[in-house]
Write a structure and sequence with these properties.
The complex is a heterodimer of chains A (112) and B (112). With 112 residues, chain A is mostly beta strands. Helices cover 0% and strands 48% of the residues of chain A. Classes of the chains: A mainly beta (112), B mainly beta (112). At the A-B interface, strand 5, strand 9 and strand 10 of A face strand 4, strand 5 and strand 9 of B.
Chain lengths: 112, 112
């Protein structure tokens, strides 16, 4: 059973605020990912990490940043939130290319 | 660059029908192919993972097949139920040890 957690599940915040979306997994997976998805639209990869101290930008340009200090934890930070950042953010992980990728429940972010 | 296409984009069927969702990919050198389900506003749930050496995988009423040489996979849903209504996505690694590339999904509605 996949154990990947995201907090908060819902967040409404004002423009200019700094926010951190949390993602953690208990499966010991090396690979972790952040996706952005607008309602009814396709997934876009924004960041990924293949291990501690390793992060890469994804296909979609994003003003967010990520860090990977511990294997189980992959937080995403927006230094100054804007209404254009309103979206759903999904975190995922897998052990290696042969393994299943599992997703967290998502964080729905609304920036006013 | 790997590209994934899913046909049809949307499908509406009466309850009890058997149905097939299609997925095609451009680069046949894949490690595996994964089918996901997504309910509105939720994260993705892994349904089936087919390794490149396998032809098909089954889970309950779901059967996924893989034909690497033709770059195609199908997801067969038997005896569809209203609870099967969701968006179904397929995904493959871009190449080797790289993040998954997702199709845009098929939005399925099963009418009672």
């Amino acid at each position: 059973e996949a154990d990947i957690y995201q907090t908060p599940r819902y967040l409404v915040i004002g423009t200019g605020k700094k926010i951190t979306l949390e993602c953690s997994q208990t499966m010991g997976h090396d690979k972790m990912y952040w996706y952005q998805q607008d309602p009814g639209m396709e997934l876009h990869l924004i960041h990924y990490s293949y291990g501690v101290n390793s992060t890469e930008k994804g296909d979609l340009s994003s003003e967010s940043t990520v860090s990977r200090i511990r294997t189980e934890h992959f937080p995403l930070t927006l230094e100054s939130a804007r209404p254009s950042h309103t979206s759903q953010y999904l975190c995922a992980s897998n052990g290696d290319s042969y393994n299943e990728q599992f997703f967290g429940p998502g964080t729905r972010l609304t920036v006013l | 660059k790997q590209e994934v296409t899913q046909i049809p984009a949307a499908l509406s069927v009466p309850e009890g029908e058997n149905l097939v969702l299609n997925c095609s990919f451009t680069d046949s050198a894949i490690y595996n192919l994964q089918w996901f389900r997504q309910d509105p506003g939720k994260g993705l749930t892994s349904l089936l993972l087919i390794q490149s050496s396998q032809r098909e995988q089954t889970s309950g009423r779901l059967n996924a097949s893989l034909d690497k040489s033709s770059g195609r996979s199908t997801l067969y849903i038997a005896a569809s139920q209203p609870g099967d209504s969701a968006t179904y996505l397929c995904a493959v690694p871009s190449s080797g040890n790289t993040p998954l590339v997702f199709g845009k999904g098929t939005r399925l509605s099963v009418i009672a």
